[in-house]
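Title: Prediction job returns without error message
Component: structure pipeline
Severity: low
Priority: P3
Assignee: unassigned

Description:
Job completed but the reporter wants confirmation the result is attached to the right record. Sequence as submitted:
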Amino acid sequence: MLENLKNELDSLRPGRTTEAGATRRTAIMAALGVGYAATAMPIMAQTAISTPADGLVTGSEIYDVAGESVPFYYAAPADKTDLPIVLVVQEIFGVHEYIADTCRRFAKAGYLAIAPDLYARQGDASQYTDIGKLLAEVVSKVPDEQVMADLDGALAWAADNGGNTKKVAVTGFCWGGRITWLYAAHNKDVKAGVAWYGRLVGTPSELTPKNPIDLAESLNAPVLGLYGAKDTGIPVTTVNDMKKALAAAGKKGNKAAKGSQFVVYPEAGHAFHADYRPSYRAKEAADGFKRTLAWFKAKGVV
């Protein structure tokens, strides 16, 4: 897969691309979104969804942000322009087959879906077999500021490749669920967000100075939070705390905070949308995706 991605991307930065670099670039593009991250094994093949790419244009590319290369996977309806855009933010395992398939699902619904590899500068998540090392060596070293800029870069690419930046949505899973809240507060072009079981509270750090609960008053777009009552890592008490923060922000005049909502599934735990994992709950996942599309439509993304 994306072995030694950080070093490979270094050779692809502006002014550094050689013939060998171009060959490596081709390899990276072909590998992103192919197969499942090693940390996520074993795969529940009997429930893993595979969305065909017929009628779609799909692939991997690289865009640059402040001289750094960001690889990404995308999917969109073929031969169409002026498409609504959805940024699909990865779980902790990076941009692997599950995230690519989710992009294709959105493309089937008429979106230009983009999933940037937001760990690219820190390391190659696909090669880790130990989740503790992945968290310590890669995930914990990713600054929120970098992530916000990289997502902005995805929108810039979309604007030049058939996307309508007046119709922007963001959604994310687990690690990406938290980022969804943050990006809805960061970018004024976002019309709607859907956060799947993303952490809402936490101890601030230099790289992650604020959490969603700290940004309730700063939301630019309403967010639908999809959470599981049996999620031991994200207690329902933190969902309730976020509801209070949003209500307070709404009373102060923040329409996005006032318009945000939660759905808490009583029998679901964490990662209930991840169809390739034992945590998958088909009924709740299908309902959540249906709600996601309806939420985006209701908020003017389509």
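Comment from assignee: result matches the submitted record. The first helix runs from residue 5 to 10.
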